[in-house]
C-alpha cells in the first residue's frame, strides 16, 4: 500500500493490548484534534466479534469470506468454482 493518505493515517495509529477484555472483544477509540485545539473522541465497543462462539457467522457470511479470501489467489471465477465443489 503506497497511498499517501493511508500512509499518513497509519503513522498516527497506536494499537494497544488490553488484558482486561475478552479475546473476542474489542474497543476502538478515535481521538481527533479539533480546530480549536480541543480533542473529541469517538469510541466503539464490540462485545463479541463476528465469528466468535457468542456471535457465529452465518453460512452466507462464511461463503462470502471464503470467496473473498480465495479470490485473491484463484480469481473470482476460481473461488466460486472451488466453493461450488463443497
What does this protein structure show overall?
This protein starts with a helix and ends with a helix. It folds into two domains: 1-49, no CATH class; 56-86. It has a two-stranded antiparallel sheet. The protein is flat and about 55 Å long. It has helices at 4-10, 59-84, and strands at 26-33, 39-46. With 86 residues, it is an alpha+beta fold.
What is the ordering of alpha helices and beta strands? HEEH
N→C terminal distance: 34 Å
User: Radius of gyration in whole Å, from Cα?
Assistant: 19 Å
By oligomeric state, this entry counts as single chain
Beta-strand content: 15-25%
Helix content: 25-40%
Q: What's the story with the biggest beta sheet? A: 2 strands, antiparallel
Q: Shape from CA axes?
A: flat
Query: Average pLDDT, to the nearest integer?
Result: 90
- Specify the number of helices: 2
When the domains are counted, the total is 2
Give the uncertain stretches in residue-range form: none
For the secondary structure, the number of strands is: 2
Structural class: alpha+beta
What's the arrangement of strands in the largest beta sheet? 1-2
Amino acid at each position: 500500500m503506497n497511498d499517501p493518505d493511508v500512509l499518513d493515517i497509519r503513522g498516527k495509529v497506536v494499537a494497544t493490548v488490553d488484558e482486561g477484555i475478552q479475546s473476542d472483544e474489542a474497543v476502538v477509540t478515535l481521538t481527533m484534534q479539533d480546530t480549536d485545539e480541543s480533542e473529541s473522541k469517538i469510541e466503539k465497543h464490540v462485545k463479541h466479534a463476528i465469528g466468535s462462539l457468542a456471535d457465529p457467522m452465518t453460512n452466507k457470511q462464511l461463503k462470502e469470506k471464503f470467496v473473498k479470501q480465495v479470490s485473491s489467489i484463484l480469481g473470482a471465477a476460481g473461488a466460486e468454482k472451488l466453493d461450488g465443489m463443497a
